């Protein structure tokens, strides 16, 4: 039990150290910096082929700094909503496979119909054509249902039983730290507590998908008699101070890294920012600047939140330098879905916030799923590079396992992703070489420069599947509404279940997804629909039911033959 | 940064391992099992000279089991209230020295007058003779006040700046875990968060001195719109289950030990039970049994809470066995003050709950400060023994440092305690030897069998000081009211500030403190009053002010000369 034993064991087995043990010991720290609802263009660091108008509104110098240190993945995909992405990160499963296709509520078994409700919900305000699908609204659960124990009382129905990534990392010797937003499952289920997910340390993570308040004067929601499950925990020392939540959890994240650094133990920091989720509240450190720029109230607030996040990123980078551990730390930057573009709270003009990308959070159009992503790993990932190879959220599980040298991870779930470690190492160096040789003249050209499959380690023709068999009802909103999509190379097929329409876009030529090429390329539509259908069938993906018939909505490849016969009417 | 480096260093320095490093590595795990408001007689394990009627009401087989594994300290003293004890544990300071003489509120700068209020509070419902003393109502703070930083915004006024024990243990390599009640400082100050006290892990600890609810159906207080700062955090997975808070935090405590055990790192678990503090709520697993015994509702609830705590203790012991680490683990059992005996919520007859001890929580009579204590350390502490040498709460700091081999701990505060490690090791073996030789014939005789100073390592004539310069106002209550006490050997002097009375008791003959011997032993009174006065002066201890004059209440040795002239009237 004591360190003494370890030392004795090491002394007795020194010859072995040069093989397996030594290799396993030389493992990088891993920092996963996850921003919430952060759109692909909501940064002064352009991920696109040009600087879009939206990029100009934001001030994110630390993201720019990060991009110089590593590689940008300009075609990176999350799911369209929080819990879907977050559980995919922890399980390595596509959300259509895990059946966690929307976001989980604050409390078990309570699911607002508008976001995907209970299976077969009959609320008349809902869609009158489709009933909601069977899905795992109690989300991710690291404990198996067992009638013989009192665990059944936790409410494990409608959960996905899986082995979470942090548990594998912890069991392999990582000091696993969770700071910030968790949102893997509702209160009343084991998945709501990061301590059940394999984290050694948890600060401020629970069932809530957003904070009740970001403001210290509101005690982050913990005002007696006004609090709810969204009140942020473990932050009591900042109550009544001037420290915004983004700043507060950053301070705690830095503090939490001190111990493993001092103990010389590799750590995994899952740093999940609550920002930029609603409520859209000003970060007083930066707000006035954006008002002075002429932004409306909502946009100024939002931009100040983004800058707060960016400063947090800078503080993490400074900390790594200060501690002398930057060289042995992998940092991955990601967002859990596209920028919020409905509801109005964010200011600006609805449905435009991710332009040129179409739509936002909730949608399977690019605005809902394409997110900013960067990877820094000094000496291994080439600095100041861009990679256009598409990657997706289910790829993170095998990638993090590869970094942590967890070989052949044993999980109860079947996983879907592929590691992007070779892509970000060999791939980024391939790009750096092309830059050196003058084959790529500026950063934007890299967006067009394809990395061969043998270098990237990722098949050119692989499918990236996005599935949202629910609604997200807001006024003037019909692009977040029972849809599936698949991307293959530059091609993207969208299946609109309500109308039975299949849309085909070439993202290399039409990033806005405005020019539907379905009638021009029927064979492509057919093959992609087949591919999407096959995956959804294989995964037994949640699908809505047609109220009139009680039948499941047809798969995308089944709808082709009937699409001319009779399109379904859609309710509005 | 990696474990790799450590291994290399060890390989290079193997010859050194047999000296300092190896010694430092062979350190025990330390489990501090702290129960709340748990009176000295509220257990089926008698700490006194006989089985008192109160002992018979309770069922604590695991405390009995623990007593067989180690030693009972039958004269162990806490402060009379929670935060005073808890901050003393973390600082090694007497509460009269730290100036944290009462319990801290939920929120900074808000102090109910009844429990010690703001200095000079003028609330007319208060005592009309005395005004409250200057004291550190914002309690313990691990951060120094610094006008140059925004730390000042945290509210560091009226705090005691000190280096907390867990920080020293963590910095020496311990994996420090906090589970349960913290209560070191109010929300809005750094001390409210265990992460600031040197804990690597915190589960459920914050500013609150009691849970808003123990019941899972109340979500431990987290019901939207009904919660407050007493709602227990980090427990969301148990909401709506059948798992009582005592059970829930036990499960989390066991889980939290898994990581350091697996990593072969020594750990310090500070396991602070919320129970048996108010609200007095039934533990459904045990409640009916006590009703069936004929107890009233309050007593039955209370007894079920005690049994829940005892089962938790058993689960910890089972866990240590199961993991094979019991032999290298020190377990210390303690309560933060005497049993609650006012207010009525607990049932029974007020002021009798600690009988034969006088009064309860809040009082410096034995009922308020003498608490159950046990120490288990297999192979070092003799099993099934009793030690009657008095120990006190400020002794824990040096003792835990000694166990952890933290030599000459560097702290910003001056500490007051002495280590009891020699007492519980050599002392318990001295008792065991006497038992073997037939000098002690039964467990109760050990209560009378003195361990010589050279064996115990603790001076026979040392003073144990209890200071409560506040009130705790309840009906029919005047023994928790501006008092100080000092114990030396069997003698105890009590100073009642309101009346200027000095009372002298011989605890060996009069554990009930009913036979005041002051007039019989004036010299003893004088010397003990002098001793108490000297300590209070040295520590600049908080003292109330006489409203009429604005003068501080006289010290106990100053009152002797005037006590015949004019006793102050006491308000009732």
Rg of chain A, please? 23 Å
CA(first)-CA(last) distance of chain A: 65 Å
User: What form of chain A results from the Cα inertia axes?
Assistant: globular
| Uncertain residue ranges of chain A | 1-24, 562-572
Q: How much of the polypeptide of chain A forms β-strand, as a percent range?
A: 5-15%
- What is the helix content of chain A? 25-40%
Question: Largest interface, per-chain counts?
Answer: A-B, 76 and 77 residues
Let me know the average pLDDT of chain A.
90
Q: Counting H and I runs of at least 4 residues, what is the number of helices of chain A?
A: 16
Return the structural class of chain A: alpha/beta
Oligomeric state of this protein: homodimer
Number of strands of chain A: 17
Question: Main sheet of chain A?
Answer: 9 strands, mixed
Architecture overview:
- The structure is a homodimer.
- Chain A contains 16 helices and 17 strands.
- Chain A has about 575 residues and is α/β, with parallel strands linked by helices.
- The longest helix of chain A has 27 residues, at about 295-325.
- Chain A is globular, with a radius of gyration of 23 Å.
- At the A-B interface, α1, α2, β7 and α7 of A face α1, α2, β7 and α7 of B.
């Amino acid at each position: 039990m004591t360190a003494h034993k370890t030392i004795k064991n090491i002394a007795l087995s020194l010859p072995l150290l040069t093989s397996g043990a030594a290799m396993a010991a030389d493992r990088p720290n891993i920092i996963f910096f996850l921003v919430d609802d952060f759109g692909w263009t909501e940064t002064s660091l352009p991920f696109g082929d040009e600087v879009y108008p939206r990029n100009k509104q934001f001030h994110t110098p630390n993201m720019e700094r990060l991009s110089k240190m590593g590689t940008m993945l300009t075609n990176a995909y999350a799911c369209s909503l929080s819990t879907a992405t977050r559980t995919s990160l922890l399980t390595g499963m596509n959300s259509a496979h895990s059946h966690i296709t929307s976001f989980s509520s604050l409390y078990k078994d309570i699911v607002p119909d508008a976001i995907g409700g209970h299976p077969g919900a009959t609320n008349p305000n809902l869609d009158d054509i489709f009933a909601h699908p069977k899905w795992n609204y109690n989300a991710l659960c690291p404990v198996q249902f067992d009638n013989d124990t009192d665990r059944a009382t936790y409410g494990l129905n409608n959960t996905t039983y899986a082995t979470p990534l942090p548990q594998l990392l912890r069991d392999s010797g990582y000091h696993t730290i969770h700071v910030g937003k968790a949102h893997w499952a509702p209160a009343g289920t084991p998945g709501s507590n990061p301590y059940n997910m394999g984290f050694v340390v948890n600060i401020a993570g629970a069932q809530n998908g957003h904070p009740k308040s970001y403001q210290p004067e509101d005690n982050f929601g913990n005002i007696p008699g006004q609090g709810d499950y969204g009140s942020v925990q473990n932050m009591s020392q900042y109550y009544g101070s001037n420290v915004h939540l983004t700043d507060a959890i950053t301070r705690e994240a830095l503090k939490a890294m001190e111990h493993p650094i001092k103990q010389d133990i590799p750590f995994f920091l899952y740093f999940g920012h609550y920002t930029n989720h609603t409520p859209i509240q000003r970060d007083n450190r930066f707000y006035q600047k954006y008002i002075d720029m002429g932004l409306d109230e909502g946009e100024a607030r939002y931009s100040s939140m983004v800058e707060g996040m960016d400063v947090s990123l800078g503080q993490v980078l400074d900390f790594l330098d200060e501690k002398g551990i930057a060289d042995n730390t992998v940092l991955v930057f990601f967002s859990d879905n596209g920028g919020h573009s409905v509801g109005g709270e964010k200011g600006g003009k609805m449905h435009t916030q991710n332009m040129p990308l179409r739509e936002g959070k909730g949608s399977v159009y690019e605005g809902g799923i394409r997110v900013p992503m960067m990877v820094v790993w000094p000496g291994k990932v080439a600095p100041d590079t861009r990679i256009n190879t598409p990657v997706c959220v289910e790829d993170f599980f095998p990638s993090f396992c590869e970094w942590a040298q967890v070989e052949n991870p044993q999980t109860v779930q079947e996983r879907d992703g592929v590691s992007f470690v070779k892509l970000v190492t060999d791939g980024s160096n391939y790009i750096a070489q092309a830059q050196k040789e003058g084959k790529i003249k500026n950063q934007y050209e890299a967006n067009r420069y394809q990395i061969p499959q043998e270098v990237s380690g990722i098949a050119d023709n692989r499918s990236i599947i996005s599935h949202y068999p629910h609604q997200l009802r807001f006024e003037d909103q019909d692009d977040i509404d029972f849809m599936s999509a698949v991307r293959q190379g530059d091609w993207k097929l969208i299946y609109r279940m309500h109308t039975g329409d299949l849309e085909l876009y070439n993202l290399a030529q039409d990033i806005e997804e405005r020019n539907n090429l379905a009638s021009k390329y029927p064979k492509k539509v057919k093959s992609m629909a087949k591919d999407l259908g096959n995956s959804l069938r294989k995964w037994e993906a949640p699908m809505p039911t047609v109220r009139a018939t009680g039948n499941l909505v047809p798969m995308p490849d089944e709808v082709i033959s009937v699409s001319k016969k009779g399109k379904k009417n859609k309710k509005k």
